[in-house]
Design brief:
6-stranded parallel β-sheet; 31% helix; 20% strand; alpha/beta; TIM Barrel
């Protein structure tokens, strides 16, 4: 008598092997049989006509605050994610001196656009050190497994105080103290260390995050702490400028410690071919014995612009600023007024930061984002607002305004900022096929007011496997492997990501024909009525974590089998040949 049998599904097992019809038996949270299962079970699920996969392993999220109050970790839980790795990009909430709580919140709010009031009300701060943070997480129930990394910004502030926050150079004593904290964090179960070296990441007061300008001595000193601990990924967001200098220390660190170094890679509109140089340098590093991997995204990093979003095309127009502070219902009534509409459209925007020109005048990169069965994240240049204005003779600002007014003021305009310079996904296809890349960068839990890319795992199936019409698609088996086996292995999670006997029983049962991502919507369900943009999905028939069914037909079952992951997880010898 098994605990659970999934019968007759098309199994894409995570190894990349051809999908096959198979039963899956589960006992005590572990897969025990795959193939033709002749026994019985306390519960059976008929998966005939459905796809069965491992649960998605999302290695780039920012649930560091939300994880302390939300047992679901939505939106990721709605998209078949069964494991999340947080603590990315050098920001997080441990270690944390009592007088630095507000500062850490402002850092996260500035970098990741998570409402500070929600973090202030939601986080209880029953820790100071990183091991204490881990212990706090370990006490809570949740629907999926969580893992974290030690963030550079928190460590630097903890050791160096204001000097660290202001990005002053670390002394030898500072580096030794930081290395000790990182080593303690890894020993407590962190999966790695993260840092940020990009000017895109600024705190709420506009200052670069701590560690942005850290020198080689600081980076190597901390990296050696990972080596001393014996495991851990060194993760970073970086402008990679100059690229050769960044790769020099990355190669040295990985070759010396034997540990992975991984960095975020997106196509830049300023240097649209730089990603090729980065992959060339990554290949060279690997040939020289370094374990370097680029984390890539499956679609553009794009803003979803609406009247309730953090920003929109009229945010810097003086006439809009006059009504910006009104509650949404009152503001919407003003926006419907023809006279106010005319004034806002006629205004010239004020200076609004480095991206302000694109945000307020980049009509050639703005597109209607509407739900017509599928959301179009790979739009054609001829579908842009600018192209529509040229065809119709209308003012592009009027067109954008009217798009935002759709659905009673809840219409959205899509502005792909990164990864879409040539208005197609051909480069993303090339990135995903490169052996030195791993699928990542969903930023689950972050950018609450303008982005919802936690839907990436579902998009991989709907767009890349099923619907893409403007270029090559990807095989189901490859897409499943990319976001299960490959992501899990990078972080040493060797017990999951493949459906095979002895492996952890994390699975999805999916109606691939009916799978779809729903339109974004703005909700106010964070603590302190904090705002966030969410996206749900239809088509997940069931999600299973540690052998327990956590979601059925998109609804939570109440099961809370999720655990805190402490350190790398065991390898299953019988699975190695399939890898």
């Amino acid at each position: 008598m098994h605990d659970l049998i999934i019968r007759g599904g098309l199994l894409a097992d995570g190894t990349g092997a051809p999908a096959r019809i198979a039963d899956v038996a589960i006992d005590n949270g572990i897969v025990t049989e795959v193939g033709t299962v002749t026994g019985t079970a306390r519960r059976e699920i008929d998966a005939t006509g459905l796809v069965v996969t491992p649960g998605w392993v999302d290695i780039h999220t920012h649930y560091d605050g939300q994880v302390t109050w939300d047992p679901l970790l939505s939106p990721s839980c709605w998209h078949g994610v069964t494991t999340v790795v947080m603590g990315n990009c050098g920001v997080g909430f441990a270690p944390a001196r009592p007088d630095k709580h507000d500062w850490l919140i402002s850092l996260m709010e500035g970098v990741e656009d998570i409402p500070g009031a929600a973090l202030a009300e939601g986080i209880e701060w029953n820790w100071e050190t990183f091991p204490e943070y881990m212990d706090s997480l370990d006490k809570q129930k949740r629907v999926l497994d969580v893992a974290t990394q030690v963030p550079h910004g928190s460590v630097r502030a903890y050791v160096m105080g204001e000097r660290g926050a202001r990005n002053e150079a670390a002394t030898d004593e500072d580096i030794a103290a930081m290395a000790k904290i990182v080593e303690e964090g890894i020993a407590a179960g962190a999966l790695g260390f993260s840092t940020s070296r990009t000017m895109l990441h600024l705190s709420k007061d506009g200052e670069p995050v701590p560690g942005t300008f850290a020198n080689k001595a600081e980076l190597m000193g901390i990296g050696r702490a990972l080596g001393k601990a014996g495991h851990g990924v060194f993760e970073m967001a970086s402008d990679m400028t100059p690229a050769e200098e960044e790769f020099n220390w990355m190669k040295e660190l990985s070759a010396e410690t034997g540990l992975p170094v991984t960095y975020a890679l997106l196509q830049s509109p300023v240097e649209p071919d730089k990603w090729r140089d980065m992959l060339r340098l990554t290949d060279e590093a690997r040939k020289q014995g370094a374990n370097v991997t680029a984390q890539i995204a499956c679609r553009p990093t794009g803003m979803v612009l609406g009247w309730q979003s953090t920003v929109h095309p009229f945010i810097a127009h003086p006439a809009y600023y006059e009504i910006a502070a009104l509650p949404f219902a009152e503001r919407l009534e003003k926006l419907k007024d023809p006279e106010i509409r005319a004034r806002i459209i006629a205004d010239q925007p004020r200076e609004f930061g480095p991206l302000g020109s694109i945000l307020t005048k980049g009509f050639d990169r703005m597109f209607r984002l509407e739900n017509t069965g599928t959301l179009e994240y790979e739009p054609r240049a001829e579908d842009s607002v600018a192209a529509l204005a040229e065809r119709t003779g209308r003012n592009p600002a009027e067109i954008v305004y009217d798009m935002l007014m759709e659905k009673d003021g809840r219409g959205y305009v899509y502005l792909p900022l990164l990864n879409y310079t040539l208005f197609n996904f051909d480069h993303i296809h090339e990135m995903m096929r490169h052996p030195a890349t791993v699928l990542s960068l969903s930023d689950g839990g972050a950018h609450c007011g303008v982005i919802c890319d936690a839907s990436f795992p579902t998009y991989m199936l709907t767009h890349w496997v099923r619907d893409r019409s403007r270029g090559e698609r990807l095989p189901l088996e490859e897409v499943v492997r990319m976001q299960t086996h490959d992501t899990a292995r990078l972080y040493g999670l060797n017990d999951r990501g493949v459906v095979a006997p002895g492996m952890k029983a994390d699975l999805n049962i999916i109606d691939l024909e009916k799978l779809r991502i729903l339109a974004p919507e703005m909700v106010f369900d964070l603590p302190a009525d904090g705002r966030r943009m969410i996206q749900r999905a239809d088509g997940y028939r069931a999600t299973i974590v540690n052998g327990a069914v956590t979601f059925e037909n998109g609804e939570a079952t109440g099961e809370m089998p999720g655990r805190l992951i402490r350190g790398p997880q065991r390898q299953v010898p019988s699975v190695q040949a399939a890898d």
